[in-house]
Amino acid sequence: MDVTVVDHPLARARLTTLRDERTDNASFRGALADLTQMLIYEALSGAPVADVEITTPVATMTGAKLANPPLLVPVLRAGLGMVEQAHAMVPESNVGFVGIARDEQTHQPVPYLESLPDDLSRTPVFVLDPMLATGGSMLHTIELLVGRGAVDITAVCVVAAPEGVSALAESGHPVRLVTAAVDDGLNDNAYIVPGLGDAGDRQFGPR
Ligand code: URA
């Protein structure tokens, strides 16, 4: 599986803000939006473009547009903090939604919402979820997408655990990962270490 770690100095600085326990919810949301911009920029770096003929105030020329804008799929709740910025970067995109809670006892994903187009066979998909921990929620989402024919899936995450990266790689699904960091691992509660805590709570407060 292709894994891209965005370690631009600005990405590292925003990630440090996210990790710092002193960062309040509003500042966390701001840093997450900034970092999402960098991750989406990187995720689209090899995207095909189509020619567009335009006229500038001076001359005619051939410009470019995204040939096939990705469907953006935030995984609720934590992915909500990424979708507005991602959509601002790619206003041509459509947006689908997947809602997955996490059972705090078993650490298993508990799906509660699925709002996706029926046919994704010709659409690249960017799944937006800040934390790739065990990979359970991401794999559930990817299986929903593959079930609709998706063959080009990008997991856009802020922090990944090696366990989650392995789970995606071993799934055999057509997925690549763009992330700002691959951390040390998971603790007994399946939180990423050092990580940044609960990405949903840190944006929106505790449930
Ligand atoms: N989900 C989170 O929000 N944080 C983690 O560390 C793991 C899963």
TrEMBL record:
<feature type="binding site">
    <location>
        <position position="102"/>
    </location>
    <ligand>
        <name>5-phospho-alpha-D-ribose 1-diphosphate</name>
    </ligand>
</feature>
<keyword id="KW-0021">Allosteric enzyme</keyword>
<feature type="binding site">
    <location>
        <position position="77"/>
    </location>
    <ligand>
        <name>5-phospho-alpha-D-ribose 1-diphosphate</name>
    </ligand>
</feature>
<dbReference type="InterPro" id="IPR000836">
    <property type="entry name" value="PRTase_dom"/>
</dbReference>
<dbReference type="InterPro" id="IPR034332">
    <property type="entry name" value="Upp_B"/>
</dbReference>
<keyword id="KW-0808">Transferase</keyword>
<protein>
    <recommendedName>
        <fullName>Uracil phosphoribosyltransferase</fullName>
        <ecNumber>2.4.2.9</ecNumber>
    </recommendedName>
</protein>
<dbReference type="Pfam" id="PF14681">
    <property type="entry name" value="UPRTase"/>
</dbReference>
<keyword id="KW-0342">GTP-binding</keyword>
<dbReference type="GO" id="GO:0016757">
    <property type="term" value="F:glycosyltransferase activity"/>
</dbReference>
<comment type="function">
    <text>Catalyzes the conversion of uracil and 5-phospho-alpha-D-ribose 1-diphosphate (PRPP) to UMP and diphosphate.</text>
</comment>
<keyword id="KW-0328">Glycosyltransferase</keyword>
<keyword id="KW-0460">Magnesium</keyword>
<feature type="binding site">
    <location>
        <begin position="129"/>
        <end position="137"/>
    </location>
    <ligand>
        <name>5-phospho-alpha-D-ribose 1-diphosphate</name>
    </ligand>
</feature>
<comment type="similarity">
    <text>Belongs to the UPRTase family.</text>
</comment>
<dbReference type="InterPro" id="IPR029057">
    <property type="entry name" value="PRTase-like"/>
</dbReference>
<feature type="binding site">
    <location>
        <position position="198"/>
    </location>
    <ligand>
        <name>5-phospho-alpha-D-ribose 1-diphosphate</name>
    </ligand>
</feature>
<feature type="binding site">
    <location>
        <begin position="197"/>
        <end position="199"/>
    </location>
    <ligand>
        <name>uracil</name>
    </ligand>
</feature>
<dbReference type="InterPro" id="IPR050054">
    <property type="entry name" value="UPRTase/APRTase"/>
</dbReference>
<comment type="pathway">
    <text>Pyrimidine metabolism; UMP biosynthesis via salvage pathway; UMP from uracil: step 1/1.</text>
</comment>
<feature type="domain" description="Phosphoribosyltransferase">
    <location>
        <begin position="5"/>
        <end position="205"/>
    </location>
</feature>
<dbReference type="InterPro" id="IPR005765">
    <property type="entry name" value="UPRT"/>
</dbReference>
<keyword id="KW-0547">Nucleotide-binding</keyword>
<feature type="binding site">
    <location>
        <position position="192"/>
    </location>
    <ligand>
        <name>uracil</name>
    </ligand>
</feature>
